[in-house]
């Protein structure tokens, strides 16, 4: 059955990480309408007999004078009000601006708020459609095209910039999540695009195959993860869109089309990372690899040692990433390789248990909590029932620590130092299947800016990636930015998808991806606003100093549209230098002439000219 949602059921059952904002409905109306009436006392001066009021004519004259005086004040006040109103009249179309009593209006039953996972972007919509079959999806797209009604494709809502959100309407393929066909011999799998990454991996593991690479988390819909150019890490491994060998796309103007590198290759390479603007990706055929166990080795290094070993780390490890801790010299190296068939997994006894590795972080939290409770700054996160901190993971503890004073540089430095110590005590090995090992706990809600830039080749790395990081760390310290950890640096080889930030014609090119963050560890609106402003200042500084110098471009799921017109024009011009914007817009005009798949972000980044 076609589910054209009026969203009367919880969106959390529709989007894995959707957050409701209907708590406003529970506000008691009586707090808005109830008033306290002060009773009028008929005898304002009980110590004076009422008969005395009539016994004195002088008192009567005085009373009349008082009455005339107050009547005069009232007339003056009324006259001033009338004069002000007619001196500054509202136009007829601005009647809603006139002052009126506060009124509380709950959201209509069919209007719900949809937000991304981090709660940084949200829209209210009445149209959120979830087809269960290809035929239902085709009907939705066809009807919307004829009515010129928006149905922006949206996935799991994990993009930090909310690239899939549209107030006018959305279509989500969470109910189209089946594995359709597996070719064990060719190691290919055909799936519906709404399938989540973890669901896909679980569905094909019995065939002995898996995905070539993974991003940090597993809850993305596969159609969404390729449309924004998501990636894992490994200097010999491409972004995830490069694993796709064919697609079935439902377009408004041409209906359902099948494209691949053999069938309409020009459109295939354009649409594979198409930002949801060329059609709704309905089915995807993926080139998989043999399922294998990996050994993850985590150890702490520093920039001097990294420089000496960087080329070896990139060339000798299937997967490798660096985690930089601002205001320290700590660089955490995480490398993953297949378990040796001859040697087996390494034999290693860690120096510290998991409990010992995190204990100093718990101690810092208790110490900081007592400090802020005793000082003028009250720790809002501690006002409610406090959970047992012994049950919290490191990332949960870090969130609670940062929440105490997230923009205090000295406090953030202490938290970063505790994180560096945590990683030092967590050095060691871990063995597991690739989908288990390659994940990463990114922490709680956060602002993110991730850029991608060329870094030479595996055989001849340019070392620009390390220069970028040195400059970034110097910038943080010089500007006293309260930058939390980690700053994550990863690598991929090139993608042939034309709109990928790692797009290149040279097969050997590698690209570095660097992500800066600021966590949103509190639900306090004022605090979140302050963190947001500080993050965009941080991001702006990196943009001015680093992006052009290193030819760095933001990840499509993390790019933010500037509000300033001049900044927006500069961004549009910059995107044109890197991507085939004219070809992309031409395809948009041909496949979606009524722009039903677009949203405000796409329109701002890629304005359509009249030439198409």
Q: What is the gist of this entry?
A:
Residues 16-28 have a biased composition (Basic residues). This protein has 612 residues and is of the alpha+beta class.
Description:
Keywords: Oxidoreductase. Residues 48-58 have a biased composition (Low complexity). GO terms for molecular function: D-arabinono-1,4-lactone oxidase activity; FAD binding; galactonolactone dehydrogenase activity. InterPro entries: ALO_C, FAD-bd_PCMH, FAD-bd_PCMH-like_sf, FAD-bd_PCMH_sub1, FAD-bd_PCMH_sub2, FAD_lactone_oxidase-like, GL_DH, Oxid_FAD_bind_N. The model is unreliable at 1-60, 83-105 and 378-385 (pLDDT under 50). This protein has helices spanning 30-33, 57-87, 134-147, 197-204, 222-227, 265-271, 303-316, 354-374, 394-404, 409-425, 434-437, 464-478, 525-550, 565-578, 581-591, 600-605; strands at 3-5, 112-115, 122-125, 128-130, 152-153, 170-171, 179-183, 188-192, 209-210, 244-251, 255-260, 280-287, 289-290, 293-302, 319-324, 330-338, 428-433, 446-457, 487-493, 509-519, 553-554. Strand 15 and strand 16 (330-338) form a beta hairpin. Strands 17-14-16-15-19-20-18-21 form an 8-stranded antiparallel β-sheet. Helix 8 (354-374) packs antiparallel against helix 10 (409-425). It is an alpha+beta fold and 612 residues long. The protein contains 16 helices and 21 strands.
